[in-house]
Amino acid sequence: MLADSIGMALLVVLESLTPAERLSFVLHDVFAVPFDDVARIMDRTPDSARQLASRARRRVQAAPQPDRDVALQRRVVDAFLAAARGGDFEALLEVLDPDVVFRMDLGPASGLTHRPLAGAGPVARQVLSTAPRFVHLAQPVLVNGEAGALFGTRDEPVGVIAFTIAGGRIAALNLIADQAKLRHLTIQP
After folding, report:
1. Which of 28, 25, 3, 1 is nearest to 13 (CA)?
2. What is the pLDDT of residues 13-59, one digit of tens each?
3. Does residue 89 carry a pLDDT above 60?
4. Residues 158, 177: contact at Cβ < 8 Å?
5. Phi, psi dihedral angles at 164 (to 5 degrees)
6. What residues contact 32, with CB distance under 8 A and at least 6 apart?
7. Residue 105 backbone phi and psi in degrees, to 5
8. Going by C-beta distance under 8 Å and a sequence separation of 6 or more, which residues neighbour residue 101?
């Protein structure tokens, strides 16, 4: 469970990196590819590849560490869902980290791309602008070992929100409606 939680948090951070930072970091730090080889693959100098990996490494290390207590995660998600259902902007702000990031992956079939939203105010406004249509359908679940919300059924999910809870607040929300990605998630009651 902890590995899933850390894995989801790392995935969120990796998605926030530029493609060049991500490639340099993953090749060097994950697969131990020497910077000379990374540079050739990326058509850059070794110093440039090293700098990209260094920037990425700093961002990965600075990422909030997710709370390990699943009961705490569930309480925070329950408070989020209650605030969204009630249209309570102030209550949402209380459960959102000031630097929260909200990502939406609706999949290629939707034809829509969404830039991540950052900051408690913009995220709360986005949630309240869409929640009245959908939040009553949300069921609390575990998504890859972290507290989340399911839309649809476990056998036929329409979408999930995976939450990263750090310091008792929501540091990241990841709405996933891409059917190909949903098939690879572990969803538990």
Report:
1. 25
2. 777 789 999 999 999 998 999 999 999 999 999 999 999 999 999 88
3. yes
4. yes
5. -110, 115
6. none
7. -120, 95
8. 12, 16, 116, 117, 118, 123, 171, 172, 173
